[in-house]
Amino acid sequence: MSCSPFDLRDYFLEELPDPHRRLVEAHVKTCGPCREELDRLRVMGAALRSSLDEEIPQRIAFVSDKIFEPSPWRRRLAAFWNSGARLGFAGAAMLSASLLVFAFRPAPAPVTVVRTVTAPATAQATPAAASETEIQERIQAAVDKAVAAKTLEMSKQVDGLRVQMLQAAERFDYERTRLRNQVTAENYMLPAKDRAPAAAHEDGK
Amino acid sequence: MIFRAVEDADLIRQASTGAVEAYNLLVSRWEKRVYNYLLRLTGHREDALDLTQDVFLKAYQNLRKLDDPARFAPWIYRIAHNEAYSMFRKRRPETDVEEIEPESTDRGITVGGSAVFPVELSLAVASALQRLSPEQREAVVLKIYQGFKFEEMAEILNCPVSTVKSRLYTALDLLKAELAPVRVAARSGDVS
Q1: Phi, psi values for residue A151, rounded to 5°
Q2: Which chain A residue has the Cα nearest residue B185?
Q3: Which of B41, B74, B103 finishes a domain?
Q4: Which of A42, A54, A63 lies nearest to residue B113, judging by beta carbons?
Q5: Is the separation of the CB atoms in A16 and A46 below 8 Å?
Q6: What pLDDT was estimated at residue A115?
Q7: Contact flag A39-B111 (C-beta cutoff 8 Å)
Q8: In chain A, which stretches have pLDDT less than 70?
Q9: Interfacial residues of A (vs B; Cβ cutoff 8 Å)
Q10: In chain A, at which end, N or C, are there fewer CB atoms within 10 A of the end residue's CB?
Q11: Do B5 and B95 fall within a single domain?
Q12: For residue B13, what are the contacts with CB-CB under 8 A and spacing of at least 6?
């Protein structure tokens, strides 16, 4: 058992700080058994280090060597995915392209109208076409119904206006007659010299 | 004009932004160390080479996850450790890692280049290391051969420092008994 102030193995393995190393060295100078123990460790270390490192038989393949080089397609793909700017540009380009496609695409509405007209005429229509024809017929019927309702409503409005006009004309005739009678009565109530001639009165009405 | 070597941290920062050449330079600096660590772990050169390749490829793919470039060494050794143990599990799931025999070569040693010590000593070292458990052996490799601190070893091995110390101290005691028995130490006081 060593009487050294610190573990001789730690000293041998160079794991002691300098002050501790100096203490061990001072102790070993005066302690025979510890010196002998340290000598054994040194002999063992020298024996172990007699086994030298070997040279590597062949150099390790570098990552830049051809064997590790990806195909051009893979390189482009990797460069694309690793670049935020390129991805952003590609996204913007796709968005622009889709906007252009939708902007310049012909409107589908005229095609639908043509089908509406022709579909009922074709007797040998496919089931899909027949269903579409049926839909168009329903739409047409709904439109006709709406038009008829509107026409009826408008004719009712016209009739109402005509009745109002007739009533207004009747009221006008009534008022004219009433006023003429009133003027005639007032004329006959005046002295004879002041009475207006009936013909003149008639002309003045 | 003062030339200053480019630090690993600078290379890592550049490599994180896609500078492949910076990463290549980093590989050339670290490949030998990682290879030898894996070689001592696996005991097979081919496996160590394949694993080293996988480690650096995986490190490149995950370099952005490395928060502190100064921690590159423990980080890449952690990857290497995981890759090695993943291979052990895939190859021999029913066999304990301890049972995997190291590669033997005609040089008589598992690892090592030109021998400073006699071949017998190298054999003794290989034999002593082989007697350790895989965890103890890896602790010795990381400390003696790779020079990591206890905290870094704990990070690489994903365990507490106390566990690292325990493994290492036990391994040192075993190795000391094998490589420096008492009678040898008494006669080798001049070895430092």
Answers
A1: -65, -45
A2: A40
A3: B103
A4: A54
A5: no
A6: 54
A7: no
A8: 1, 63-72, 75, 78, 82-83, 106-130, 195, 197-205
A9: 9, 12-13, 15, 35-36, 39-64, 68
A10: N
A11: yes
A12: B69
Type of residue found at A138? R
From residue B114, give the alpha-carbon distance in Å to each of A57, B109, B119, B121: 15, 11, 10, 13
pLDDT tops 70 at residue B36: yes
Q: How far is CA B95 from the centre of its chain?
A: 22
Q: What is the model's pTM?
A: 0.57
Hey, is A203 helix, strand or coil? helix
Cβ of B111 within 8 Å of Cβ of A54? The answer is yes
The yes-or-no verdict on residue B111 having pLDDT over 50 is no
**Across B78-106, average pLDDT:** 71
CB contact under 8 A, A60 and B176: no
pLDDT score recorded for residue A51: 80
Beta-carbon pairs below 8 A across chains A and B? 120
The CATH number of the domain where B116 resides is what?
1.10.10.10
On average, the pLDDT of chain A sits at 79
Q: Which chain B residues touch A49 with a CB distance below 8 Å?
A: 144-145
Residue A34 lies in a domain: yes
Residue that has been written with the tokens 């102790």 in this structure: A27
Distance (Å) of CA A165 to CA A151, A153, A159:
21, 19, 10
Q: What is the C-alpha separation between A107 and B29, in angstroms, rounded?
A: 69
CB-nearest to A39 from B53, B57, B185 is: B185
The verdict on residue A147 lying in a domain is: yes
Structure tokens at B80: 């290497």
Beta-carbon separation of B143 and A13 below 8 A: yes
Among candidate residues B65, B31, B69, the one with its CA nearest the CA of residue B51 = B31
